[in-house]
């Protein structure tokens, strides 16, 4: 009897060992939690108050009479980190987050269709991550927002097609087995007859 597509995918990832799957899922969940937390509180934090101070004519920050540094204009609630550092942080953090989500999805494949809530909840968590990341970017970094959003949405769409395909294949195969049930049983009896 030929393996179904679902069974081939299940065997391809070779995740038959329940304890190994549990360990991998646990570690991937911890990584997803840490990277989500890093998106909520990035290095340097967020601006506490808005400032419309015009930038100094030089690249060196100056101090006013009270000793407070004069900074670039910023908006409260936006990430302090900026420029190339922000792009590197957001890119790496998003990539690691999505890799851990993909790992959770892969380890849930053998449990399909019972693990569909796992796929739905991690997909919603990824959407919340994207919203958090986009909300924190400064308005001046439109390029960074577009890159982060594009990367996250693309990887989520690509990553969600595999579980959707497997679930559809599993459902169609289950339906086909129900429809063809009598033929399958006759075939089994014929094999038993040939053994004698």
UniProtKB/TrEMBL annotation:
Which regions span the lipid bilayer?
86-106, 118-137, 143-168
Which keywords does the record carry? Membrane, Transmembrane, Transmembrane helix
List, for all copies, the residue spans of the domain called PGG.
Answer: 19-109
**Source taxon at top rank:** Eukaryota
Q: State if Transmembrane helix is listed as a keyword.
A: yes
Protein name per the record: Alpha-latrotoxin-Lh1a-like
């Amino acid at each position: 009897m030929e393996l179904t597509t679902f069974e081939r995918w299940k065997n391809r990832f070779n995740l038959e060992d329940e304890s190994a799957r549990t360990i991998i899922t646990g570690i991937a969940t911890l990584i997803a939690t840490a990277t989500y937390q890093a998106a909520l509180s990035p290095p340097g934090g967020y601006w506490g108050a808005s400032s419309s101070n015009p930038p100094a004519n030089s690249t060196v920050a100056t101090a006013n009479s009270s000793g407070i540094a004069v900074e670039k204009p910023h908006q409260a609630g936006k990430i302090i980190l900026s420029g190339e550092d922000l792009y590197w942080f957001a890119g790496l953090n998003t990539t690691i987050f999505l890799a851990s989500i993909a790992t959770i999805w892969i380890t849930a494949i053998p449990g399909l269709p019972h693990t569909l809530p796992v796929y739905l909840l991690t997909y919603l968590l990824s959407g919340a991550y994207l919203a958090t990341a986009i909300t924190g970017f400064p308005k001046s970094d439109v390029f960074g927002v577009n890159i982060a959003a594009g990367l996250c949405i693309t990887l989520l769409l690509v990553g969600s097609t595999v579980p959707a395909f497997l679930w559809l294949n599993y459902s169609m195969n289950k339906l086909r087995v129900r429809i063809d049930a009598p033929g399958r049983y006759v075939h089994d009896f014929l094999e038993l007859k040939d053994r004698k």
